[in-house]
Amino acid sequence: MRGEDGEVLGMDVLDWKDFCAAGAPVFGDREIAMTLGVFDGFHLGHQRLIQKVVSQPRTYPVLFTFRRSPAELLPHRAFLGSLATTGQKLEECAGFGMKAAVLIDFSMDFSKLTAKEFLDIILDRMRLSKLILGENHRLGYRGEAGAREVQVLLNRRGIEVDIIPTLYCRGLRISSTRIRQTILEGDLALAEEMLGRPYALDLGFLKEGGFFQGAERKSGGEGFIYAVPVRGFPQILPPPGEYPVLYESSGEFFPARLVLDNGYMQWEQVREIPGTKIFFCHSKNTGDGDVVNKRKKAEHYKGLRS
Predict the structure, then answer these.
(1) What is the pLDDT of residue 306?
(2) pLDDT of 38 above 60
(3) If you write DSSP's letter for every residue of the chain in order, what string do you get?
(4) How far apart are CA 281 and CA 283, in angstroms?
(5) Cβ atoms 302, 252 nearer than 8 A
(6) Domain-by-domain residue ranges, the chain?
(7) For residue range 155-211, what is the model confidence (pLDDT) as tens digits?
(8) How confident is the model at residue 4 (pLDDT cuts 50, 70, 90)?
(9) Which of 200, 198, 227 is nearest to 214 (CA)?
(10) Sign of the four-CA dihedral 37, 38, 44, 45
(11) Computed from CA positions of residues 113, 119, 120, 124, in that sequence, does the dihedral angle turn out positive or negative?
């Protein structure tokens, strides 16, 4: 990803303000299939929406999403934290075949747009052919329009809207809210089932020039120990304890143990090169389990996205 906007794994990334300021069709004469939403965590329900969008024949798939969750910025909403960084979300979407994303910086002004006003902005700047929504989607000021109301609005203008049913896991509705609560409760196995992959922490801030404030790195044992303060970390973390994990470094996966305690998370790497992600192996306070299979799962998932 180049800066905030640019290109992610071949996917064009645009800013909402630039999209609105465009004086010509943003994506040229292409027929557009799109979806929109927060897409925090990119769980199985999100994946089904994206797969539906990219499967539309003779269309260019586009995602409209937010840099930060609206719930994080609205004073009346309780926000527990994010499941993924913006970079993770865009990487996942690109891996599933999305060609472009428009990133919205949520604001009070944006929150006051009605569903019709928002859709008019979209339709004035691209040739929308089909919109894909989840059945629980809400659009517009104070969530005034549900998926069915949006369907009626766009059908009147000759645009198809497909509504995708909610997915369930163990009888529970799959949602970002549910997964956040599941991780906070320490049930990483259920979180993994709902996400369709191990829960992963983005360590992009460990790259040279972007070291997280308060983080420490030192030699110890057989490798290098990283200690990162929990306060201010951009993603949801499970309860204090010791967790078997895999960390990804330079495209390879290595088993490790991550300890959450005393306001820090700490793990040891065999390489000094900072990892890019940490994957939870979901078994808390137990042995490493079948680390080989966990590594294969992470590598297989990476392969699906490459």
Answers:
(1) 41
(2) yes
(3) --SSSEEETTEEEEEHHHHHH-SS-TTTT-EEEEEES--TT--HHHHHHHHHHHTSTT-EEEEEEESS-HHHH-TTS----BSS-HHHHHHHHHHTT--EEEEE---HHHHT--HHHHHHHHHHHSEEEEEEEETT-EESGGG-EEHHHHHHHHHTTT-EEEEEPPPEETTEE--HHHHHHHHHTT-HHHHHHHHTS--EEE-GGGSTT-PPTT-EEEEETTEEEEEEESTT-SB----SEEEEEEEEETTEEEEEEEEEETTEEEEEESSSSPPSEEEE-S-TTS---SHHHHHHHHHHHHHHH-
(4) 6
(5) no
(6) 6-165, 198-305
(7) 999 999 999 999 999 999 999 999 999 999 999 999 999 999 999 999 876 664 445
(8) very low
(9) 227
(10) negative
(11) positive
Q: 52: Cβ–Cβ under 8 A, 6 or more apart, which residues?
A: 35, 132, 162, 164
Tokens of 98: 């999305």
Strand pairing report for 252-261 and 264-269: antiparallel
Rounded to the nearest 10 degrees, how much is the dihedral formed by the CA atoms of 274, 277, 280, 281? -80
Q: For domain 6-165, is the CATH number 3.40.50.620?
A: yes
Tokens of 57: 């024949």
pTM of the model: 0.86
Buried-state track 137-171, b at ≥16 Cβ within 10 A, e below 16: bbbbeeeebbbeebbebbeeeebebbbbeebebee
